[in-house]
Specification:
globular, 9 helices, about 280 residues, about 40% helix, about 10% strand, seven-stranded parallel β-sheet
């Protein structure tokens, strides 16, 4: 019922296994089995209809029964008037806790555009968060994001996919990522969400992601770090059940840490308390 232009074979991204996830998904597809328990979920926009992003939210609110929050699409290049109108439409949907615009290659341009400060101010006024998907190796983009944070100190910003951490063996890129991570960690309204490992390595292991998690915990504390799935893309590497079992293996026997990183922090940052 959606557009999903990015999933069409003729459109980028050109992933050889893209067809594997080009199918319908419903709430039942995110079920977990013992010893895991699904408390709820956060749905991050998936390009259902970027012209009318509330249509994706309407579908979710009609078809989902579990506790959930939704992060809607927003277009940062919109005029101030149209952006504000889009946000007003989204705020009429009770599941919406925030918005996302995939920054990536456009990050430096968009985050250094004065118009974006106005858009972030609108989000701050409506108590919405912003999911920022960008590479933290892009220092100019990180500087732009920090400028935005200084203008909107009450806006919650969640860094998606760990800011695309490079491999630990690439010392130069790793150090750049780590330095920019440290810059962002100084702002208490910023959290980091770790997921999307399969995007750079379909065969990732727990050992590959351990140094990323350890540094994030060191810089952000266990209150501002979340583990996430990126479902259904994660299924290129592991089933959803296997993914969360990998995470619990990584965290060990510290039950309080497992609870915070797998559910409690997400409940706080995505405002499940308003359900």
């Amino acid at each position: 019922m959606g557009d999903y232009a990015w999933l069409k074979a003729e459109n980028p991204p050109s992933w050889a296994d893209k067809a594997l996830i080009n199918r319908d998904y419903r709430e039942s597809d995110v079920a977990l089995q013992t010893p895991l328990e699904l408390m709820g979920f956060v749905h991050i926009e998936a390009g259902f209809d970027n012209q009318q992003p509330w249509r994706e939210i309407d579908w979710l609110e009609q078809h989902c029964s579990l506790p959930f929050r939704s992060v809607a699409f927003t277009e940062l290049a919109l005029s101030a008037e149209k952006f504000a109108w889009h946000i007003e439409q989204l705020c009429q949907r009770p599941s919406v806790s925030g918005v996302r615009h995939i920054l990536d290659e456009q990050a430096e341009t968009l985050l250094n555009d004065p118009k974006t400060i106005g858009h972030f101010s609108v989000l701050q006024e409506h108590n919405l968060s912003f999911d920022a998907q960008l590479s933290l190796v892009d220092s100019a983009a990180v500087s732009g994001l920090i400028n935005m944070l200084q203008h909107t100190p009450a806006l919650r910003v969640i860094i998606d996919h760990g800011g695309w951490p490079p491999t630990y063996n690439d010392k130069e890129q790793w150090q750049c990522w780590a330095d920019n991570l440290k810059r962002l960690a100084l702002y208490p309204q910023v959290a980091i969400k770790l997921s999307g490992w399969e995007m750079s390595n379909r065969n990732w292991t727990v050992d590959d992601i351990k140094p990323v998690l350890e540094l994030c915990l060191k810089l952000f504390s266990n209150r501002r770090v979340m583990l996430a799935s990126n479902f259904p893309l994660c299924t290129w590497s592991y089933s959803l059940q296997e993914l969360w079992l990998n995470y619990t293996q990584l965290l060990g026997e510290d039950a309080s840490l497992v609870a915070r990183l797998s559910s409690e922090n997400a409940a706080t940052w995505y405002k499940f308390n308003q359900i």
